[in-house]
UniProtKB/TrEMBL annotation:
Organism: Nocardioides zeae
Name assigned to this protein: Type IV toxin-antitoxin system AbiEi family antitoxin domain-containing protein
Organism lineage string: Bacteria, Bacillati, Actinomycetota, Actinomycetes, Propionibacteriales
Superkingdom of origin organism: Bacteria
Amino acid sequence: MGVELGRTARRGRRVGSRVIHKRVVGGCTSRPQHAHSLVMTLAKFQGLPVLDDSFPLPLDRPFHRHDAVAEGFPLRWLSALVASGHLRRPLRGVYVAAQVPDDTAARIASLRLVVPDDAVICDRHAGWLHGADMVLAPGEHLGAHPIRVFRFPGSYRLSGPQIDSGQRAMLARDVTEVDGLLVTTKLRTALDLGRQRSAVVALSGVDAMLRADVDRDELLAEVGRFAGERWVRTLRYVAPLSSRLSASPPESAVKLAWYETTGTLPDLQIEVTGPRGRPAFLDLGSKALRFAVEYDGAEWHSSGSDRAHDDERRDHITRVHRYDIDVVTASNVYGPTRDIEAIIRSGLERGRRRLGTAA
């Protein structure tokens, strides 16, 4: 290593996109004060309620990781600020301050940063753009998946970590434009999301698009056009089971488990009166047997106040309306501990026994 000013030189190590220098004097190294300030700056950002004007990147719109590189902002800090909730990561390589509303305008701005003008956005990110809020994979705001796009025949295929592209057969009526972005229509997006290997994933996607105002009758009428295409059997299976009343992917999964356990669809969003006389709704179940299953996700049912509200509501419904309510969580519905089918069978058996006792 070259030596300047006698035995004084500068050595550097990379932290994110910056080089933190150490001054070498007489063979020893000393860390400059600004290296410590970088660490403290990250702590400062994480200590703020929301990011403020001290943050060197946009606070009113999405920005790309390349913008952070240009500002000398360490990329690992972006991940740290996503983890602390100060930033969202709606797409791979795209970030937005937590205070920016997650509306259509912000989603369009995010997609503009990564999608070429002549590419058509499809599948889950098309649903997301159309307002199907729960169509993205769980936790995708923390580790965003590549955006699925296609180009018409004759165009070259895109590649890169942010984009997953290919070609597919489309009719002109399958593509629309949203503020300058090409995207599959809501109907075509629902049909594409229904053609997945997993029936649970497919039904969850179709239900999400019905909640985004896809017409169910139109959906059913279009299924036949995909004869012979990949995973069309899944679409044929889940389309008749779909409903906009399934309010989340886990509710769609429980609905599918109910159907596959009993051969019939459950009643959805069963209306009763709540503790204060207002309408309350049970996720799904059997009105005839007064048995219901409710899914409690961590996002809305984990705090003390959430649990107190849930307990008050369910105690009232059990006491006044005589419903037997089984509460399930992710471990009951997904993965190796899944036991939702047994829960449904047991609840229905209890309901039948109650009918016999009442008679």
